[in-house]
Specification:
The chain is elongated and about 60 Å long. It has helices at about 10-25, 35-45, 60-70, 85-95, 105-120, 125, 155-165, 175-185, 190-205; strands spanning about 5, 25-30, 50, 75-80, 100, 130-135, 135-140, 145, 150, 170-175, 215-220, 220-225. The protein has a 5-stranded parallel β-sheet with strand order 2-1-3-4-5, with helices on both faces. The protein has a 4-stranded antiparallel β-sheet with strand order 6-7-8-9, with no helix packed on it. It contains 9 helices and 12 strands. Helix 2 (about 35-45) runs parallel beside helix 3. It has 2 domains: about 5-120, Response regulator (Rossmann fold); about 125-225, Winged helix-like DNA-binding domain superfamily/Winged helix DNA-binding domain (Arc Repressor Mutant, subunit A), CATH 1.10.10.
């Protein structure tokens, strides 16, 4: 079962989170300030971090930004009492995977935890430097691509979409997931934009773009990558 770190300074909230997560079978460590949380993250490996925004010693935003700068990929769910849109956007920009606004129900929390753990990329998949999807060969480190031995031009957004789909291959990825992780919830971007990018990608990947075999539409849900 997954190992979860709870970083929360309110004693009752910390105890409630720990007890309920342990009841669900998770292994939980709980700390009460940002600096101690950072030390714990550096010392131990976790599958998920529940991170309060308002913390003594170091804010949740600063902690999240710090661990991402250090290359620590552990998924983070931000806990915020404010519920302001700016806090949600900041959390995602600093590298958080999701957020939940206090007060929240136990059912909602557990659903978010399970969802983030379910979509956490396999380490071998996420560290791949060169990948092949259909007709397309991609160097994800150098942002270069080729098709049938010939170099082709792709935008950075196209590379990022493919990277995210590859990291979550065989999983159904919603348009909202792509908007959040590739565009960062930019208000000027619509789900239709995602569809347009997928259409362009299919032209380079699929033998028959009108009948895709690799980036498959799951109606009402999103897309699934099948290498």
């Amino acid at each position: 079962m997954a190992h979860i770190l709870v970083i929360e300074d309110e004693p009752e909230m910390q105890r409630g989170l720990r007890d309920n997560l342990e009841f669900e079978g998770y292994t939980v460590i709980a700390v009460g300030d940002g600096k101690k949380g950072l030390e714990t993250i550096r010392e131990k490996k976790f599958d998920l971090i529940l991170l309060d925004v308002m913390l003594p010693g170091m804010s949740g935003f600063d902690l999240c930004k710090k661990i991402r700068e250090e290359g620590i990929p552990t998924p983070v769910i931000m806990l915020t009492a404010k519920g302001e849109e700016v806090d949600k956007i900041l959390g995602l920009e600093f590298g958080a995977d999701d957020y939940i606004t206090k007060p929240f129900s136990l059912r909602e929390l557990l659903a978010r935890v399970k969802a983030v753990l379910r979509r956490t990329p396999n380490e071998k998949i996420s560290t791949a430097k060169k990948i092949t999807i259909g007709l397309l060969q991609i160097d994800v480190e150098n942002y270069t691509a080729s098709k049938k031995g010939k170099s082709i031009s792709m935008t950075s957004k196209e590379f990022e979409i493919l990277r995210y789909l590859w990291q979550h291959q065989q999983q159904v990825i919603s348009r909202d997931d792509l908007l959040k992780h590739v565009w960062g919830y930019d208000e000027s971007i619509s789900s239709r934009t995602v569809d347009n990018f997928v259409v362009k990608l299919r032209k380079n990947i699929e033998k028959d773009p009108s009948h895709p075999k690799h980036i498959v539409t799951i109606h009402g849900a999103g897309y699934k990558l099948i290498p």
